[in-house]
Amino acid sequence: MTATAAGPALTVVVTRLGIDGGMDRVVEAMAAALADRGEDDVQLVCVTTRGRLGKLLSPLVFAGALARCLVLGLSGRADVAHLNLATRGSVLRKALMERVLSLAGVPVVVHLHGANFDDYYAACGPLMQAAIRGLFRRAACVVVLGSHWQDFVTRIAGPEVMTAIVYNAVPRVAAATEREDGNVHLVVLGEVGERKGTDVLLDALSLLRGRGIGGWRCTIAGNGAVERFRARAESLGLSGLVTFPGWLDAGAAKMLAGRADVVVLPSRAENLPMSIVEAMAAGKPVVATPVGAVAEILHDGVEGRLVPVGDAAALADALAGLIGDREARRRMGEAAAARHAADLDSGVFIERLVAVWRKAAGRAA
């Protein structure tokens, strides 16, 4: 650990799944934002906890991650650890990592992800609930993605738990030039399935078609139940209007978002989805549901539209309004870009995290 003008340098151990999902994109955003700062006061050491080797071999990957954390801690090469937490297996992995890191004298910051972590906690048995509460209570800080999740942590673990709201973030990106086909391009980025509201969206698009509202195309990009919903789109007469390209890597997803006119995410459960943050970074209006922390960054009629969960008719109305009003799309897109610059830009994000890490390391001193 070396000293810099900004203060004592920190080495931060950060967990990643190694499967290029939403949490890994957050870690990539951390690394990119640190590089853009142009300072060497913080170094990230990424530790993969699951990887792409399948269920049989993933325990070996995790065992290697535990061993690496222990070595980094005992050798004094880790000042703080940042554990990205979701549901199910992630809870067990991070609880074990926290114990190992604590034994090695490394303070832990827990970063709560997971679209339905509150529902997951409520469905857990007493022992798992106690493990989750203990993880939050032992953490130097619990980073959450909005006040909804801050209230949840405080409610289950107590007001003495240190929390910090840090919204997900990405750098500002330039929007693509308008396409020549004249259609309004609706884009969905995320896992294809009921949780993301793919069924509701297809019903809404069917309503648009039934009302004779044309001039649009929709791309639903992501893994999951792609074939099932492609078949459903065909049964609704949408095969010429809706495409399912499947999973896209980060570069292709960013390019697709940049070419969108409206980004749509009618989810039933979310924390703070990266696809919405990326849309706002590109200056795109968003149509979404007020789940998780979404309503904290997206205000109805300002940066886009908020519609009730599961309401295909309301979603169709919101989409119809934007499809037919280019000026509204422009106005809401500009508001989305302004909101991104104020709270969702990578520079804002990383400075808030660095402050959390420094405070955590100081608490351990």
TrEMBL record:
Gene3D superfamilies per the UniProt record, alphabetical: Glycogen Phosphorylase B
Residue ranges constituting the Glycosyltransferase subfamily 4-like N-terminal domain according to the UniProt record: 33-168
Database matches in InterPro entries: Glyco_trans_1, Glyco_trans_4-like_N
Record-given protein name: Glycosyltransferase involved in cell wall biosynthesis
Residues annotated as domain Glycosyl transferase family: 181-337
GO molecular function: glycosyltransferase activity
A Pfam family annotated for this UniProt entry: Glycos_transf_1
Alphabetical keyword list: Transferase
PANTHER family: BLL6306 PROTEIN, GLYCOSYLTRANSFERASE
